Amino acid sequence: MRNILFVLLMLLLPMLYSCTTYTHSLSKDEEFISSKVRMTGWKKIAVLPFSGYPIYNRVFAEQLSYYIQEQPHFEIIGPAISEIKLKKRNITITKTALSHKEIIYVGKMLGADAILMGSFNTEAGWGSLSNISTRATLIDIKTGEIIAQDEEVIIGELSITEKAKRAIKFSAYEILTVLYALAGDPREFQILKERPPPTDTDKGALY
Fold it and tell me: What is the CATH number of the domain that holds 151?
């Protein structure tokens, strides 16, 4: 009987990881976005070091920064530069959320008008197939308020690396959508919106 159960388990395991599912959540401050950032004075966005799973948290932050700096509207301070500048003032970001006071202080230290911070975490899974969850939060320095927050959860057969690649592209798509809207550039924003958003069956790149 035990041998039969073991064989059944071995047969079922591939089925458990035969598909990949994506859970997506994006919250936005529509009132702030509709006012257009050019009226609020945004020029520079600082990407802070992300918290969470070692190495992947840094890759996630750096790759998001890379995608975002491709847009023409805002100057980007990457996470490595942000970390160096903050360490010179004995400031280390070790948590996923900052108070309004902390956000305003860090933003001013970096000379930024907005900051992008987040996390990359792994959850229960089978070995290298661990599930992942990511968060990217865009915050206005003047008010300390969250303007947009994207969350991705990817579960299934893919390796952590493959899941990370998809989460980065999915999150970059959402953050870029918000940034183009904030920039008040209808032409470029429309071009971005014409690209189909990530779906549960997406196995390729967004760009």
Answer: 3.40.50.10610
